[in-house]
Amino acid sequence: MSAISPRLSLNQATIKYADLDTALRVTRDAGIQSIGLWREPVAAVGLDEAVRRVADSGLRMSSLCRGGFFTAMPGQAQQTALDDNRRAIDETAALAAAGAPGSAAVLVLVAGGMPDGSRDLIGARERVRDVIGALEPYAASAGVMLAVEPLHPIFAADRAVVSTLGQAIDIAEAAGDSVGVVVDTYHVWWDPQLFDQIARAGRLGRIASYQVCDWLVPVPAENLLGRGMMGDGTIDFAPVTRAVTKAGYVGDVEVEIFNQQIWDAPHAEVAARVAEAFGAFVAPALD
User: Fold this and answer.
1) What are the tens digits of pLDDT across the range 152-171?
2) Cβ(38)–Cβ(64) below 8 Å
């Protein structure tokens, strides 16, 4: 097996059933230097304890997932989302400060789907823009980059009304300097404007995170779980990776896979497979 890329990050969602201690240990034992954390396992031990454990692990943090869900109409639900995202910003800052040098204070944002009973997609996207703009000064003061993640259009109704990288960049530009975008191969590989928009994001300094996994066919009945290990599906990772690199992104590259068979496999086995697939399909295009 070739040397493990120092830019590989194991997103905790790939080993979903691992608690924080297990995820940190499995990542480190696999020779992977960086981890993408999720808020739920952090909350399970409490932020102060999570900060201590991340510091003790010697790992970098590449991002914290996730904030967002901004499409509610103005009122209590929208205020609740704002309050929760301010807490997420605080968590991101604390965990990134605890991580090894090179940790990224990046909070991944998922826009949220259509409010119940609404068909106003344009209005929902406008609310996402406005609420992120309202959060931006708080993120800037904390030294946190908010990273808007466009999701594949199949998820527009229930998870994310932001469907293309271009839409995400538009929101980031409108919101302020502390807002960037996530380039996730699973969600954007199909977009005919992808390479132009990656270049645009690079010119604007807006690429906050790069995530990889494959698109499986046939798409499973539970489409959320249709992500695969790199090389198991239809995505050509090399040109996308080269484009992100050319655009100036030098951070960690997260492998984030939602897949029941992968979740059910032993965590150490999954981490080893991630490192091997990343080395074969992604790392060569990072050079």
Assistant:
1) 999 999 999 999 999 999 99
2) yes
